[in-house]
Design goal:
Layout: H1 4-7, H2 16-20, H3 32-39, E1 43-44, E2 47-48, E3 53-54, E4 58-60, E5 65-66, E6 71-72, E7 76-78, E8 83-84, E9 89-90, E10 94-96, E11 101-104, E12 107-109, E13 111-113, E14 118-121, E15 124-126, E16 129-130, E17 135-136, E18 141-142, E19 153-156, E20 159-162, E21 170-172, E22 177-178, E23 183-184, E24 188-190, E25 195-196, E26 201-202, E27 205-207, E28 211-216, E29 219-224
Parallel strand pairs: 1-4, 2-5, 3-6, 4-7, 5-8, 6-9, 7-10, 8-11, 9-12, 10-13, 11-14, 12-15, 13-16, 14-17, 15-18, 16-21, 17-22, 18-23, 21-24, 22-25, 23-26, 24-27, 25-28
Antiparallel strand pairs: 19-20, 28-29
Length: about 230
């Protein structure tokens, strides 16, 4: 079974206890709200444009810039030097680390961005975790809800793993890069330093790190990065 340590470098972050206490890395998704309710102390240290909306129960650390037209619901915690760009929509239950970008027309809910993670343009990040240094190409969508509305079942090594979650987007390990208009199906666990090529739809499953994932017709092909 993949562990949080296989995917993320969370040492020294204030979320470390939550990751360490999770038997399975996706279990963190069900704990974000309670964690924020326990630890978040609302305060605005950064800069908020007059046309942006920042609701109560939000913490913005030093150097955070919220651009025109952005909308941030609580509970949300945003770390030092991060940017919430024009037209971004953060729907609460979100932790954004230091030096991150929530970009133009990007929607985020019940998610974690570890330090340096970027979703710069037209992305959807729902019920997902982005590891350190992850970069989502424009138009990347991390789908989080099955059409049949049942629990997300992970398919890995011939096993069916019931995650217990009706909504589960993707866990993208440290350094994952996605190409423009790529999509992950509900319940994707992608190991560190993978590349997902543009226009690729990645099926539900667990993928080892240091691979290239690309579509060939309706099939997904993976190969080791050189």
């Amino acid at each position: 079974m993949v562990t949080a340590r296989d995917l993320f470098d969370f040492a020294g972050t204030f979320m470390e206890r939550e990751f360490n206490g999770a038997e399975r890395p996706w279990d963190v998704l069900g704990r974000i709200k309670a964690f924020l309710e326990e630890h978040l102390k609302p305060e605005i240290k950064g800069t908020v444009h007059p046309t942006a909306v920042v609701e109560p129960d939000v913490f913005l650390d030093e150097g955070v810039v919220v651009e025109p037209g952005a909308f941030i619901q609580g509970p949300t915690w945003i770390g030092k030097g991060s940017s919430v760009r024009q037209g971004a929509y953060i729907r609460g239950k979100t932790v954004v680390g230091a030096g991150c970008i929530v970009g133009h027309a990007t929607e985020v809910k019940n998610a974690v961005f570890l330090d340096g993670a970027k979703a710069g343009h037209f992305a959807y990040v729902g019920d997902s975790i982005l590891g350190k240094g992850v970069n989502l190409g424009a138009g990347t969508k991390l789908a989080n809800f099955k059409l049949d509305a049942g629990n997300v079942i992970l398919h890995a090594d011939g096993q069916r793993i019931d995650t217990g979650l009706r909504k589960f987007g993707a866990l993208l390990g440290n350094g994952v890069q996605t190409g423009c208009n790529s999509v992950t199906s509900p319940g994707c666990v992608v190991g560190p330093e993978c590349w997902i090529y543009a226009n690729t739809t990645v099926p539900n499953g667990i993928y080892e790190g240091h691979q290239i994932l690309c579509s060939e017709g309706r099939r997904i092909t993976s190969r080791r990065r050189r």
